[in-house]
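F.,

This is the one I mentioned.
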């Protein structure tokens, strides 16, 4: 027993060393191989609270410790509580973008006028998802409705005209869900079809739409 005591302790120490080597070696290897971080994403365009017309591009930045493999976008009309999507964005490196609101049944567009929230998510190769990046915006594809109330007659259709002196006034009503930035009136001579002048007013104040 005395003879094998020292060699046995050496063997035990050697085995312990080998075990620790493989344990920490495997841990280091696994740490390098396992994807533990979720992707990140943000929406950078268009600016928040923008009013958008026609087809538009939603874009932003995404990142991951390895690579972002896909980005999905969902659009929700908050006025109607109606969802559109989900849409798969084009991803190139750390940038992503998706083209939205193509032709459709709402005044010629896929999405009706109104207030919207966009939500974007990024995914890595193993399906791990980022948090949600959101953006609020408006869609406005309907032009303002303008009803001219004074003068009330058009000589080309009614055969009579409202007579004015040297100074006269145009009056009417505008209907628009968003801001009216400018009203422009052009005066022409019917007989010669010559333009006599264009008069405009900017930053028009409206009440009750």
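My design for it:
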């Amino acid at each position: 027993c005395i003879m094998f005591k020292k060699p046995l302790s050496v063997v035990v120490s050697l085995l312990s060393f080998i075990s620790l080597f493989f344990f920490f070696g495997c841990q280091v290897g696994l740490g390098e191989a396992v994807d533990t971080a979720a992707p990140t994403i943000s929406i950078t365009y268009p600016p928040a609270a923008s009013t958008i017309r026609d087809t538009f591009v939603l874009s932003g930045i995404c990142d991951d410790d390895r690579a972002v493999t896909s980005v999905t976008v969902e659009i929700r009309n908050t006025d109607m509580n109606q969802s559109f999507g989900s849409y798969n964005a084009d991803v190139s490196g750390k940038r992503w973008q998706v083209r939205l609101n193509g032709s459709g049944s709402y005044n010629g567009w896929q999405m009706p006028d109104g207030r919207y929230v966009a939500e974007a998510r990024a995914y890595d190769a193993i399906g791990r998802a980022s948090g949600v990046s959101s953006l609020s915006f408006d869609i406005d594809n309907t032009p303002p409705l303008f009803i001219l109330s004074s003068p009330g007659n058009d000589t080309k259709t009614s055969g009579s005209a409202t007579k004015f002196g040297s100074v006269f006034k145009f009056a009417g009503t505008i209907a628009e869900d968003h801001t009216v930035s400018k009203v422009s009136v052009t005066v022409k001579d019917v007989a010669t079809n010559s333009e006599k002048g264009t008069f405009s007013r900017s930053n028009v104040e409206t009440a009750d739409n």
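The two ends are 102 Å apart (CA to CA).

Talk soon.
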